[in-house]
Design goal:
59% of the residues lie in helices and 9% in strands. With 221 residues, the protein is of the alpha+beta class. The chain is globular. It has a four-stranded mixed sheet with strand order 2-1-3-4. It starts with a strand and ends with a helix. The protein binds S-(P-nitrobenzyl)glutathione. S-(P-nitrobenzyl)glutathione binds next to loops.
């Protein structure tokens, strides 16, 4: 079985691991599955070959033995379902881990994405400065609630699961804003995720792409 994912040829974050291929790499590392990476440019993402796999012209995608997937939630779920290590065996615990995956992408990630949009995409609009604190407070509400549920546990529901993998990945995107550090419980939760050897390998792999791209750009100058 050979697995190929796609990732940015040149990630706008310069290798900070914030692009969504990192969570797929992390899942594959957790379950010990080797994978290939096809790097795509912003232009190639909008061309028919890539659109045939990803209708929205984005990364990451996942291909394996004739199966082509997009959407990181679906990709990580597929990996977790087919390999041991990311979903508990107990039926109820397994369903709760899947619930946390949905909570990560459906409830916690949207206000975090709003912050990115208001800062970067809409940053030059006259109302952006007024909107910013409203969006930030919506994030804080979610983080307070998540903190209350996590309490002093290491992970959201017993052992580390795909739910934690998705939640940590979503929260990581907040780090540059400083908001994550307002919640030491969650900052420590994210740090626990980042300390996992599988995350470290995933991070190093995406960083190697950014370092290679920077070296290539330097050589071309
Ligand atoms: N819901 C989809 C999923 O989870 O798979 C979202 C996929 C997505 O947003 N992909 C982004 C993309 O391809 C890359 S990850 N964007 C290009 C486009 O839409 O044309 C989002 C991302 C981008 C950049 C940073 N960064 O620089 O920090 C972080 C995250």
């Amino acid at each position: 079985m050979s697995i190929t994912i796609t990732a940015f040829e040149r990630s706008p974050d310069g290798g900070k691991g914030l692009a969504r291929d990192t969570r797929v790499r992390w899942a594959l590392e957790e379950v010990g599955q080797p994978y290939e990476v096809r790097l795509v440019s912003f232009q190639a993402m909008k061309e028919p070959a890539h659109l045939a796999v990803h209708p929205f012209g984005q990364i990451p995608t996942y291909e394996e033995d004739g199966l082509a997937l997009f959407e990181t939630g679906a990709i990580v779920f597929h990996i977790a379902e087919n390999h041991a290590g990311l979903l508990p065996k107990d039926a109820h615990a397994r369903t709760r881990a899947i619930m946390w995956m949905f909570a990560a992408v459906n409830t916690v990630e949207p206000p975090i994405l709003d912050l990115v949009v208001v800062k970067i995409v809409e940053g030059d609009k006259p109302w952006a400065q007024q909107r910013l604190p409203l969006v930030a407070d919506r994030i804080r509400t979610r983080l307070r609630q998540l903190c209350a549920r996590l309490g002093d546990a290491d992970w959201l529901d017993g052992e580390f699961s795909a739910g934690d993998l998705m939640m940590v990945s979503v929260l990581l995107r907040l780090r540059p804003s400083g908001i994550l550090d307002e919640f030491p419980t969650l900052a420590a939760y994210v740090a626990r995720g980042e300390a996992r050897p599988a995350y470290q390998r995933a991070f190093a792999a995406q960083l190697a792409v950014a370092v290679g791209a920077a070296a290539q750009a330097g050589a071309a100058r």
